[in-house]
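Subject: Sanity check before I submit

Could someone independently write out the structure tokens for this chain? I want to compare against mine line by line before I put it in a report. The sequence has 117 residues.
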Amino acid sequence: MGLVHHGSYVNYFEEARISWISNLGLSYSEMEKSGIILPVSKLNVQYLKPAYFDDELDVSVELHKIPTSRLIFNYIIKRENDIVVKGSTVLAFLNKKTKRPVRCPDYMLEKVTPLFK
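---
Independent answer below. Compare away.
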């Protein structure tokens, strides 16, 4: 059809989120090694305009608020000046062994708190 498949946007969200965390000097793999996992517990996608196979898309991501036991991210995907997709994800901080919720680790809070001042 020449259109970007609707499921691809979720992958774009994930790539942007991983880059965002990496740019803070953190990594998912290090978090997992420390015993914390971050599964997505909620996903919201608003398809506003179609994107096409050869389009160059810009994905922006921002943290919605200071994390507690979850991280909330907002995303905007644009083609030039047109917003194609908006979305959000909620990720839960879980203990890797027990799969029970835990608080955001202090080392992450130290990195993200200045973003809200």
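---
OP: Matches mine. For the report I'm noting this point. Helices lie at 8-23, 28-33, 106-112.
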